[in-house]
Amino acid sequence: MPDFIAPDGNPRCQWCGGAPEFLPYHDNEWGFPVDNDQRLFEKLCLESFQSGLSWRTILNKRENFRTAFHHFDFHQVAHFSEDDVQRLLQDAGIIRHRGKIEAVINNAQRAQVMVEQEGSLAAFFWRYEPDADSIAAPQTQTTSPESIALSKELKKRGWKFVGPTTAFAFMQAMGLLNDHSLSCITRDRVEQARQRFQRPV
Asked: For Zn(2+), which residues are the binding ones (predicted)?
């Protein structure tokens, strides 16, 4: 798959050419390692909302989602009621899908339990970082043994809308693997960030 040549003349992952808003997201967020629980929860929720839709749709609505869900503070979202569900179903700024909205509330409650049991969401999720030698060529897969295992464990713990494909997209975005194309100029920056990154325990 040929790279996208950005306006600065340097190659990026091919999907960056899909929409103007993809480039800053790609250059500044995608693949850089994250250990902040709130950001991890946000990303998993947004990947759940993306199911069946385009990432561009979600990215363009991301600020609306943040407003609607208290910036994905799962301690607050865990207390959402049916009144909140009804409010969100009327919010044209987000994806008005009852199942996905209710999944966010459910998953916020599950996240609280996970923090009690594991210390942090980050400590749990980073256990699923794949071994570097086992990673396939960049952007050639939509699931992995680790994403399948992560999805299975999350479902076992009561999380919803967290299938293996959603889990893999989450892992790509949050830096559990460096899936930038080999010639992408951002790949080295991500790799350096991953080398400096202190894995949570």
From this structure: 13, 26, 180, 184
